[in-house]
Amino acid sequence: MLADTVFIEPVRRIVTDEDLKIWKDSDTHKEVVCFVETLSKSVRGKKISDIDIIVSENCNCILNILQDIEIIFKKHPVVSDREASRFGKPEFRDFYDDLHENISHILGQRILALSQYSNENDPRIELAVYLNESFGNRTRIDYGSGHELNFICFLLCLRNLGILNLEKDSQALVLKIFYNYIKLMRSLQKEYWLEPAGSHGVWGLDDYHFLPFLFGASQLSTHEFLKPKSIHNKEVVEMFAPDYFYFECINFINEVKTESLRWHSPMLDDISGVKTWSKVEEGMFKMFQGEVLNKLPIVQHFFFGNIIKCPQGISEARTNDDESLPVHSHFGDSCGIKVPAAFGAAEFNKRAKPLPFD
Question: Name one GO biological process term (predicted).
């Protein structure tokens, strides 16, 4: 509990390479790593469809928040000409603005009643930022692993506030709450053709997500028959997608991309050659730390308030306006060049005329 904490609006702080070094050695960094590790370990051998997952009253409240956000999403369908552009749809900004306007009210209804905090010292000022930033960037109409990380930070805040009990709620956080968050994000990606944040999402895994691969590998780490190479069997992927995050991600890729996995996701193709899921899980966890938490282009957008505290020595607070941050080239020559959403590219590819010698 943070009974004596004065809550503030979270801001971005990590700007320089020196900031990044301080961040990597900090207790807050360890806190995020340990939180994700605990979530991942809790779902080893568990399926999304398992009926013995205990969902507490407080976890149900978070599921209700996601339902509230889905209602907002459904109020803003795409009405513009889908064929006018293969990039993100401007109606996403209407959804984003509506969410931003109502997020504090939603949190007040669903969360504040669960806590011991008053309107005079209200944690919603911090929770709202993490939750709002979990659904993409309004200006660029894109989404990536940094936004996904904000949702994890939202859950971490709820743990730090005493609203979630990590010992009892971990499985539900992954298999119910995070799963429903991914389902909602897939709907947003499909409807608004959200562009991947960066040239290739998380470096060849998925245009948008990282953590489902870690959680999925953890789920499968004790499986007797399914192997990493099973991702190349489309029937197996479709059969097990409702039960395992990893197969859900592969199924999503198969639905929106026409070329083989080796062509558009060579890293996933290479990982499929690993003999055991436990080795995949181990590698994914290292990759999460190295390529998400320890990369300046990602963590320069990390927010710090008084629930998730900024390490001492990091640069002074910067505005939350993305345009004020320096641009760090991390994605190669395509950095700064718009990359079409997987759905947009797929639709345009369907209309492309075949070459006469195909």
Answer: mitotic spindle organization
Contact 277, 124 (CB under 8 A): no
Three-class secondary structure of residue 262 per DSSP: helix
Structure tokens at 349: 């590819």
Question: Does residue 182 contact residue 248 with C-beta atoms inside 8 Å?
Answer: yes
Instruction: List the one residue out of 221, 228, 214, 219 whose CA is nearest residue 285.
Output: 214
Q: Are 310 and 28 in contact (CB under 8 A)?
A: yes
Classified as helix, coil or strand, 246 is helix
Taking CA atoms, 335 is separated from 87, 225, 324, in Å, by 16, 41, 17
Between CA 101 and CA 339 the distance in angstroms is: 29
Question: What does the buried/exposed string (b/e) look like for 319-339 if buried means 16 or more CB atoms within 10 Å of the residue's CB?
Answer: eeeeeebeeeeebeeeeeeeb
Give me the long-range contacts of 133-139 (CB less than 8 A, separation at least 24).
133/301, 133/303, 134/181, 135/69, 135/95, 135/96, 135/99, 135/185, 135/188, 136/92, 136/96, 136/188, 136/194, 136/197, 137/197, 137/322, 138/92, 138/93, 138/96, 138/97, 139/322, 139/323
Mean pLDDT of 291-301: 93
Supply the angle between the helices 145-160 and 27-42 in degrees, to the nearest 10.
90
Residues contacting residue 215 through CB under 8 Å, at least 6 positions apart: 39, 40, 43, 174, 178, 245
pLDDT class of 165 with cuts at 50, 70, 90:
very high
Indicate the DSSP class of residue 114. Answer: G
Q: Answer for the pair 147, 134: CB distance below 8 angstroms, yes or no.
A: yes
**pLDDT tens for each residue of 225-234:** 999 999 999 9
Does residue 320 have a pLDDT over 80?
A: no
Q: What is the pTM of this model?
A: 0.89
Whether the pLDDT of residue 309 is over 80: the answer is yes
Q: Are 137 and 92 spatial neighbours (Cβ–Cβ below 8 Å)? A: no
Number of other residues whose CB lies within 10 A of the CB of residue 257:
17
